[in-house]
Design brief:
Oligomer: single chain
Helix content: 10-25%
Radius of gyration: 20 Å
CATH architecture of the largest domain: Orthogonal Bundle
Strand order of the largest sheet: 1-6-7-5
Strand content: 15-25%
CATH topology of the largest domain: Helicase, Ruva Protein, domain 3
DNA sequence: CCGGTTGTTCAGCG
DNA sequence: GCGCTGAACAACCG
């Protein structure tokens, strides 16, 4: 379910509840459900993998984590974590993290860090990356403070697209490749969004879960890498591991 | 039917 | 206080 583009699809799918009053709340979440009843949903927003239900004085934050899911105007055969009833339908969430945000969202979220947001700021991303030259690119792409919304699939596909090994550090990446990485983190996310909408996402994977490189038919390497220790799929031939020779003084 | 995982947080430890 | 590790969560797919 849950990389950034999937959340954008969710946001688009619930637009008919925007401006509607919540007439009943249920679910096994520990947040105060009474506080939501009879309130109007002002807006739905996303930040990276966060889904935000905005009310006048607070926001309910949904994070689907690995296994979370939702259902609109239907129910799955399991307990709802949070269920919102409207006059024109219902919105149900399962096995997710639910939190209340009391602060204004602009104080909590850096919209410029969300790769799918209109306010995405590539220069700000570059500055954050430059500050951590020792970080592996496979970890940097999963850093939600830099690339909010990027998940493990996007990480692998971006590195394949720009022909960079996941084991390259930020500091060793040639400046042009750094630019490409930042650009493709956003660009691939929009491709992901379009493919997912068309139910053809998997068809477009070139390296993620693949056995053979789409470019040169080399055997793809599958390994858990970096501090994040997430699955990396990469071609040892066309994805280059950049290394600078450091001259000690 | 078992193993692995599109993710994050937190406890525990050195 | 830090960085690191592993557990916990818990559903679906192949």
């Amino acid at each position: 379910m849950p990389e950034g583009p999937s959340l954008v699809i969710l946001k688009n799918a619930v637009q008919m509840f925007k401006g509607q009053k919540v007439i009943a709340v249920s679910g096994n979440t520990s947040i105060d459900k009474d506080a939501i009843r009879d309130l109007e949903v002002i807006d739905f927003k996303t930040w990276g993998k966060h889904f935000l239900i905005c009310f006048k004085n607070f926001t309910v934050r949904i994070h689907l984590l690995m296994f979370g899911s939702y259902a609109i105007n239907e129910r799955k055969g399991r307990p709802e974590r949070l269920s919102l009833q409207f006059a024109n339908g219902e919105l149900n969430f399962y096995t997710c993290s639910v939190q209340v945000i009391e602060e204004p969202l602009n104080e909590v979220y850096d919209w410029a860090a969300d790769v799918l947001n209109d306010n995405w700021d590539a220069k700000a991303a570059r500055k954050k990356l430059k500050a951590q030259p020792g970080t592996l690119v496979c970890d940097a792409l999963l850093d939600q403070n830099i690339f909010a919304g990027v998940g493990n699939i996007i990480k692998n596909e971006v590195l394949f697209r720009i022909k960079v090994s996941p084991l390259t550090t930020i500091g060793d990446l040639p400046p042009r490749k750094l630019t490409e990485m930042i650009h493709e983190a956003r660009n691939y996310s929009f491709d992901f969004l379009e493919w997912k909408k068309a139910f053809e996402l998997k068809k477009h994977w070139l390296v993620y879960t693949k056995k053979i490189c789409a470019r040169d038919k080399t055997a793809i390497i599958k390994k858990h890498l970096g501090k994040t220790n997430r699955r990396s799929f990469y071609c040892p031939v066309c994805q280059i591991k950049y290394e600078c020779i450091k001259i000690s003084q």
